[in-house]
Amino acid sequence: MTTLSDRQRQLLFDYSLGLISERETEEVEALIESSEEAAELYQSFHNALAPLENVELEPCPDDLMERLFARLREAAESGSDRLEQLLAAEQSGRRPIRIPLWRNWSEVAVAAAAVVLFVGILFPAITQMRARYHQAQCAANLSNIYGGLRNYVSDHDGLLPAAAVMPGSPWWKVGYPGQENYSNTRQVWLLPRHGYVDPSRFLCTGRREGRALTFEGFSVREFSDFPSRAYIHYSVRIRCSTSNDRDLTQRRVLMADRNPLSERLPSDLAESPKLRLCDELMTSNSHNHGGQGQNVLLYDGSVEFARGRRVRIFDDDIYLIEDMCCGTEIHGDEVPTSEQDIFLVP
Question: Number of helices and strands (H, E) in the chain?
Fold first, then answer.
């Protein structure tokens, strides 16, 4: 006569598929150790699923992904926000999956195989499709920012927005409330402040918080900078001390997804950066797209998704100054060494 409850059987089945929480995992492992019946039942599940470990999964064809992605983007651009709501809900967190427990274990094995194949094949395709969707949304943000920049330049005798930032100022202090123009984002803030760009365009939907943050309740004109570093997910080029590029005729990088260095900077502006470069900080991509790469906006308005940190212009690492190396201490006031040395922060 069985001594296991229906709940315990269900947990054993879910455990076999990896669909339970850490707390439930501890409970099941203790159950397996203490109950011979539970151990035998778990082993039967394991034996039923074992052949699936040798199944070679093939990636979803690129052309199919592109067609599906194009339809998703078309739906989003049509004015319907239902798609983004669904994707945001999916991204917001895992939800427990419960599969009813049958008394016929052959049916259980078939159902388990179907679930494993579904998780192994369809979920990666959905994840990849969602990533491409957010990459396109991010690229649209940068294109929109560039459009506002062109309008600003047209209205200001061909000059880019500028703030009197002295070389060596603490560029990392985004949101500094004083009158000093510290951060290099103050010049970019002129675009939303004067109505050229909606401030929400500076939030990348590839970041989970980028889909949750909002500028509602802010009086944009009352701010001289972004409210804080959390409200700008893109890094902006710092010009070297001899720079004279005040227009859009240069063939250089203007902006890109946030520099990985920014993730390690203190949120309290009264503190000082205590950051040393390591291999991870010198090689990792932007966190905006899960480390898969970064969108890069050029002065000519084109946007590229780069899989690495070195762009084809000058073959330069856009997130570091050229003489930086492992162990270099970041003080937050660094300036590029030349016009060819691209340095995007914060």
Answer: 9, 9
Sign for the CA dihedral angle at 101, 106, 110, 112 comes to positive
> Buried (b) or exposed (e) across 254-282, using 16+ Cβ within 10 A?
bbbbbbbbbeebeeebeeebebebeeebb
Residue 308 belongs to what H/E stretch?
none
138 vs 233: CA distance, rounded Å? 10
pTM for this entry:
0.64
| Model confidence pLDDT, tens digit, residues 15-25 | 776 666 677 88
What confidence tens digit (pLDDT) does each residue in 303-322 have? 999 999 987 766 789 999 98
| Residue 102 confidence (pLDDT) above 50 | no
Beta-strand pair 344-345/329-330:
unpaired
User: Whole-angstrom distance between the N-terminal and C-terminal Cα of the chain?
Assistant: 66
Break the chain into its structural domains and give their ranges: 6-130, 140-345
